[in-house]
Amino acid sequence: MKKSATPKAEKGESPSRLIDAKIKELDDWRGKTLARVRALIKQAEPEVVEEWKWGGVPVWSHGGIICTGETYKSVVKLTFAKGASLKDPKGLFNSSLEGNTRRAIDIHEGEEINEDAFKTLIHAAAALNNSKAR
Description:
The chain has helices at residues 15-26, 29-44, 115-133, and strands spanning 49-53, 57-61, 65-71, 76-80, 103-107. The protein is 35% helix and 20% strand.
């Protein structure tokens, strides 16, 4: 999978603005998908912190990394840092299933995500991070 081009971080530029720029730059289904999951993450965890890491990857954290939002030519990949420790009764995780730590959701063009199940997963990931931070 080939990653898309990425906005370059200017010194002092906020991660939220960089994510805005990435969404605008994509200007296709991937940008719309990234914008939608970003909105769902903020709905699920209003105190989420947006970060910009590893040279251009949107990251959402609350007490630790919840998930990353990588964009490739044919997929938007949401990787949950502690996904293997989360219950996923609706089966949203469909990638990186073999590891002991991470799990991912690959969203392809035209696919819909179960919004309620996704928000529940985001909330559970934040709760797990915060329980381990104490």
